[in-house]
Every structure is written in structure tokens, then in C-alpha cells.
Amino acid sequence: MSTLTAPPILSVTGLDFTVGSLNILKDINLSVREKEFVCIVGASGCGKTTLLRLIGGLLTPTAGRVQFRGRDITGPDRELAVVFQDYSKALLPWRTVAGNVELALEARRVPKNERADIIHDLLGRVGLAERADAYPVQLSGGMQQRLQIARCMAQAPQILLMDEPFGALDAMTRQTLQDEVARLCAEVGVTVIFITHDLEEAIYLGDRVISMDRHPGRLSETLDIELERPRNQLTTREDARFLAYRHRLFNLLPPGH
Amino acid sequence: MERVIKGLLLPACVLLVWELMARLGQLQSESLSYPSAIFAAALAVLLDGSLLKAAGQTFGGALWGLAFGAGMGILVGVAFGLSRTLSQLMRATVESLRPIPSVALIPLALLIHGYGFKLESSVVAFSCFWPLLIITESAVRGIEPRLLEVSHVLGFNLYARITKIVLPAALPRIFVGLRLAAAVSLVVAVTVEITANPMGLGYALIVAQESMRPDRVFAYIGWIGLIGWLLNASLLRVQLKWFGRMGNWAEQSS
Questions:
Q1: Is B147's CB within 8 Å of A106's CB?
Q2: Are B146 and A75 in contact (CB < 8 Å)?
Q3: Which of A47, A248, B25, B192 measures 20 to 30 Å from B135, CA to CA?
Q4: Where are the domains positioned within chain A?
Q5: Which residues of B touch A82 (CB under 8 A)?
Q6: Residue B254 pLDDT
Q7: Separation CA A121–CA A128 (nearest Å)
Q8: ipTM of the complex, rounded to two decimals
Q9: Residue A83: predicted pLDDT
Q10: How many domains would you assign to chain B?
């Protein structure tokens, strides 16, 4: 809004993705500012996960480009961490909680004697400090997702790509994690692209919400969310502006899609 | 305890009847001995050190062959598992070499190595290579793709990817393959000794047979069975200890 002059940290231009004769994504253009929290919301099957994988370099676009600070993204990159929806599959079952976080530090070649402090700090931030020696199977779903987020943070990324991270969690855990992620990302100062099918989650978390159409998938509308931070699960969700945003998005994405 | 006693009831009766029939002169045979003589022979070979020496030789040949064959099998299996192209290129070669019975290689190995330790371990290695190759390849191919993506995002090179993700993820299944191969290695080692190599438990069996000592033949058969059982039981313990508490990642594979 006011920082339009600053160069974007991430820009997507003319992105197409086709499999065989099926056009999955068409002409995606997106520009993300430093430390912005962008939510992309769309019905299932609209290609939002595909878009995130393209941004993260896990897929190669048919046409168009993804640029991180002006440099082309051609493959997976440590500056762009991906939080997968299926947290239980993304964790190493043979490593403890601390060991899973350490994996990212090993990738960054952090010296051994500095690792313990970083791990302790990160696990403290996601509320897992006391479970450092547990194995992933011994954790609840919410804790496993927290662990994956901690590992992604240990990667020290500039951008966090989150693919429906709370989709598989119950409503209570989901709300707690929403607040934790909002706080954590603000503290660390990381830019976030957050995919969800939940309108309210998108409005609650985002600085900006972009809706997505399908067949083929394309970005339709952008909504700047002007709600104060920190946000509150009760008061923010009851705010008249929140409801107005919800109304607007609801009409853009009719249910039963 | 009661179950153990019940389980031992039938064998004990058989041994008793066998012993009684032999003692009463009902058993007229050059090839059969009787329980008390077999136990005495088993004790004798244990006490005079010949069992230990023979078992050491057999174990040495079997373990070296197992280590080398299984190690190579794991290495090649990882390569095949990671690269479908490589696996397809090598398919015809693998499928034409694999059905060769390892025993059929004894004459060839004899020509190359002559009698001794190398003869035995090379044939064992051949027989242990294939099961490990196949089980490792399928284990690597079955690794959760998400884990490989994680290692890609973290920017690990091939070596780190294999040591940090691929091998640990495939290890429970590789270990099952190792247990199978360990049993095979002992069988093949004894077979090589019986057919060609003048050392180890297999050769001791042949010597006992040629000197018309059925009691010793039975005694050695008993010891070979016991050693095989011990080997498998100890590997099973290691497996439970290593992979016991890490949940379904290990359970799924065993």
C-alpha cells in the first residue's frame, strides 16, 4: 500500500501450468512485498497447491517465471521454506523432535556447538521445548505441525510457503495455531504466502487476500485487509469490517463449488 | 512356562521311545544312532574344541560373504531405487544373473580362488547380493516422496540426501532383508563346505559321515541348527531394539 515503491521480494509473471491438454493454471501474476502475509483462497481443485509448488520450485512452469529478489527460481531453494499440509509425512520418524529441527541446521551448515541453542529457542517459540526428546509419532497432530513449522524456521527462510497447514486439524487447535503463526511470523519478520480454502482463516491472518477461480486456475480478486494487529479470535472476527470482507469473498467464491 | 513344557512333551517322548528301541535292540541300522550317543558326541566335539574351530571357520566365511554381498547389494539397490533409468538399463542383466543358483558357482569359484576361505565367502556373497539388491531397491522406491521433497527444499547434495534421508528411511526394510540373507549365508557356507571346501561345519559333517559315525553326524546337524537359530534370534533382538519405539515407519516394513 504505502510501500509500493519498494521492489517486491517475490514476483510471479505470466505463469502457466499445463499437464497434457489440461490447463491447470493460466496467466498468474503476483507480486509480494517484504514481510507481507498474503493469503490465497480458493475452492478445492482450483490449483492453489500447484501454484504454491511452482513458487517453491518443486514444479517447473510451462510458461512464465517466478523471481525471488530479482533472481529466477528454477528449483527448490533454501530461502523459500515449504510447510506441507500432511505434516506427519514431512517429518523424519527416526529422528526426535530436536533432531528434526537439527536437519535444517545441518543443511545450513550451522556449526554443531551452536545448534543446541537455536533448537531450544525455536522449540520454545512453538511450545515444544519439553518434548525435545520425543519422536514424531508420540506427538498430536497440532504438535507435529508446530514441529514442521519450527523446522522450516530453522531453515532461516526469507519466505514461508504454507499449503493449507491447518487443514487437517480440529477447530480449537487450528485457532491456537493461527495466533501462534501470526505472532511467530511477525517476530521473525518472514514473508508468508498462505494457501487455504477457509475464507475466515484467510481474512484473519492476511494483510492481503487473493481469491482464485478454477478451470483454469487464475487469480481473480485482491482484498487488502485493514484490520489492526495483533488480531483476536473473538473481537477481530466480530469486527464489522471482518464481516464485510467475509461477505465480499463469500460472493466471489460461492459454496458448493 | 506351562506352554513350554507342553511344547517339549512330544519331542521328549520321541527321544525316549527312540532311545528305548535302540537299547532293546529293535533298531538295526548303520545310519541311525540313538539319543544318548548323539548327546555324548555333541558334548565331545564341544569339549575337544573341534566344534568351535569348525563353527569359527563357517561363521567367518558366512559373515564375510554376507557383509560383502549385502553391502554391495545395498549400494546397488540404493542406486537403482533412486534412478529408474539405471534400474531399467540393468534389468536384463540382473534378471539373467539372478536365477543362477549360487551352488552352481562353486566350480567357478574353485577355479578362481582355489580351496579355502575366499572360495566360501565369494559364493556366499553372490547369494546374499540379490535379496539385498531387490529389497533395498523397493524400499528406496517406497520412501515417502514428501521426505525427498523436504531434502530437496533443504538443498542437500546427493551424499547427504542418501545418508540423512534415504538410508534411514529404508533401513527397517533393509534390515528384514539382512535377516533373510543371514540365514541364506549360513546355508550356502555349509553347502560349499559339504561339496568342496575342506573346512568348517560342513566338512566336519562329511568327515563324520565318511568315518561311519552317525552319532557325530547327528550332533553336528544339531549344532548347526542351534547356531542358525541363535543368529536369527540375535538379529531379531537388534531389530526390535533399534526400530522398536519409532512407530509405524518401522512397523510397516517388518
A1: no
A2: no
A3: B192
A4: 36-79+157-257, 92-155
A5: 149, 153
A6: 40
A7: 10
A8: 0.87
A9: 94
A10: 1
